[in-house]
Amino acid sequence: MCGIVGYVGKFDCVDFLVQGLRRLEYRGYDSSGIVTVNKSGGMHVAKAAGRIDKLVAKLAQTEMSGKLGVGHTRWATHGPATDVNSHPHVGGDGLLAVVHNGVIENFRPLKQRLEAAGYCFRSATDTEVVAHLIASYWELELAAQPDLTPKSMAAQGYEPLVRAVRASLQKLHGTYGLAVVFRDYPDVIIAAKLGSPLVVGVGDGEHFLASDPSPLVGGTDKIVYLDDHEIAVITADSLRVLHRDLGEKHADVQTLATNTIEVDMAGYEHFMLKEIFEQPDTLRNTMRGRLKPDEATAHFGGLNLTAKELRSVRRIVLTGCGTSWHAGLVGEYLIEELARIPVEVEYASELRYRNPPLDDGTLVFAITQSGETADTLAAMREMKRMGHMTLAISNVVGSSIAKEAHGGIYLHAGPEIGVASTKAFTSQCAALTMLALYLGRMRHLSPVQGAQIIEQLQALPDKVNAALECDAVVRRIAEKYAHCRTFLYLGRQFNFPAALEGALKLKEISYIHAEGYPAAEMKHGPIALVDSETPSVFIVPQGAVFDKVISNMEEIKARGGPVIAITCSEGAKAIGALADDIIEIPTVADFLQPIITAIPTQLLAYYIALERGCDVDKPRNLAKSVTVE
Question: Which tens digits make up the pLDDT trace of 469-528?
Fold first, then answer.
């Protein structure tokens, strides 16, 4: 959600900023813009609502250049997507420009105060308040030192600029990732972070800034993750990191593991399709080194809890949002089935404001793809405040949630660029399966049972590869039903969360209304929706409740509803005349079925969206990393 990219160094920055903004498109946006500062021409801003191509068209009509600049992709929170509301926003009489991720909750009283002081507002955004607020403090600094030159400013370590930014930050309530550039100082970017991610890339005679590492790939492999309440002073040759409470800090430079291949489409039409077909490999990566056949268990190096501490756990809370919440529901079934520990699954947006009665034996897992989801981060912080051990299941190394949790599990699924999560979901489910095995073997699972589960997990990537062979069948089914306006997704037990996730995928990228239900609940209300134009997608592989789901299928057919069945070859024979269309998948154990059944539902959503002409990787109104409440 929103993206920042910046550069200061020895080369012109415009091409890098545009390329960086394109790499941030997956986060979701509705407008974009850049600002450059140079020694001869001052500060120049270009911005446009819509896709980045519109910004590029504007840039082609200008002569913007500079060896310092920042860019931004905006996801609207305050004011519609217009050129005027796009970032960057200029403060004062063109003294400075600001780009901002996050939300300023007290922007209205600040705006009233600034308007009373004579500042003119042109946009409806909260960010313009930040720009004028910094300008107001910077004007005070200028009044005290009117003869500041770039050289004298550098000699002071840019401290007057830092003071103006710091004084402004103290007035802000909310979250921010900020980058500030100053018209008269074309050699420094001031960045600040609270609740919205920022990273600094370290190069040779150049530095980079971004809201996540993806724009930095190919530019540098050295990276500094900023923490909350930190300000970074960035020039071509130096990086200073200042903490609100701790003063100047040593910049912890880490190696960026991401490579350029992972963020390219590799010949696929969309990132989403590429990521669907990557799942055999991403599952192998998630499981690599974590299965211990000789001990018939799994092992995690980052939980930071002893076996004795884990045995004392009496209750587990899984919290997340969207797809991660669905993975949590799968985890509830897994952990209760294999480890016999009571589990609750909470929407993070609700948990952060609730006061649930959790006893001392409660362990909290925050599940997140990005590691930056604002609601999940806030819920985890509240659980930490209450004294509970909090662990993270995340795909992004160095993310806010991964850093703040007491420990956790990295998915190692690689960058997920498509906004609709696919490989992260199946990797989350695989990680939760191994966690359930690990906890179960501490309790009641025998070595034989543990060995059987490991054998089934080891076979899983090949099973997923076989499931992907349904691609052509799913595409034909998508062509048949792409005109429909409502879908029902129905499953039971482990496949109930799979039904919820399948419905979410269709909604996200095709804009078709879809609902997921336990199959038996269909007759308690949703059956009123059934008609000849409302397909029901039954997730019905062989299992303990197979016959029960067949009965629910009969109820749909009796009312003239089309039935799409996702089942194994044995199930296909039994379903026969009941299903209008059948998608066959490999047979796996019940507890692994959500991973296998996710494949055809992901493909169905993808191909229906394609038929409808939707922007698959960048669906409207959505953001990959939801960093606002």
Answer: 999 999 999 999 999 999 999 998 999 999 999 999 999 999 999 999 988 787 788 888
Closest by alpha carbon to 320, among 349, 292, 283, 354?
A: 349
| pLDDT at position 62 | 87
Of 2, 321, 470, 568, the catalytic one is 2
Supply the DSSP string of 383-442, one letter for each residue.
HHHTT-EEEEEESSTT-HHHHHSSEEEE-------SSS-SHHHHHHHHHHHHHHHHHHHT
Give the pLDDT confidence score for residue 510 in this predicted structure: 96
464 and 365 in contact (C-beta within 8 Å)?
no
In order of 318, 328, 386, 401, 428, the CA distances from 310 in angstroms are 15, 19, 19, 21, 20
Domains of the chain: 3-261 (3.60.20.10), 266-445 (3.40.50.10490), 468-622 (3.40.50.10490)
- In whole angstroms, give the CA distance from residue 324 to residue 306: 26
Report the b/e string of 464-494 with b at 16+ CB within 10 A.
Answer: bbbbbebbeebbebbebbbebeebbbbbbbb
Nearest to 141 by CA among 168, 164, 117: 164
Residue in 47, 67, 274, 624 annotated catalytic: 624
State pLDDT tens for residues 535-545.
Answer: 999 998 877 77
Q: Which two tokens stand for residue 341?
A: 């520990």
- Structural element, H or E, at residue 259: none
Amino acid making up residue 252: D
472 CB-near residues (< 8 Å, 6+ apart): none
Point out which residues pair with 72 in neighbouring strands: 4, 33
Q: What is the rounded CA–CA span in Å between residue 100 and residue 191?
A: 10
Structure-block tokens of residue 227: 């923490």
Q: Is the pTM of this model over 0.70?
A: yes
Distance CA 2, CA 20 (A): 13
Q: What one-character DSSP code corresponds to residue 358?
A: -
> Tokens 């992907």 belong to which residue?
468
The DSSP element (H or E) to which 232 belongs, if any, is strand 230-234
Please write the tens of the pLDDT for every residue from 193-232: 998 889 999 999 999 999 888 888 888 989 999 999 999 9
Per-residue confidence (pLDDT) for residue 35, from 0 to 100: 96
Main-chain phi, psi angles of 485, to 5 degrees: -105, -15
Sign of CA dihedral 226, 227, 228, 233: negative
Q: How far apart are CA 25 and CA 3, in angstroms?
A: 8
Per the annotation, the verdict on 171 as an active-site residue is: no
Q: Is 2 a catalytic residue?
A: yes
Sheet containing 222-225: which strands, arranged edge to edge?
42-49, 31-38, 68-74, 3-8, 207-210, 199-202, 222-225, 254-255
Write the DSSP symbol of residue 227.
P
Q: Is 133 helix (H, G, I), strand (E, B) or coil?
A: helix
Q: What are the tens digits of pLDDT across the range 128-175? A: 999 999 999 999 999 998 888 889 999 999 999 999 999 999 999 988
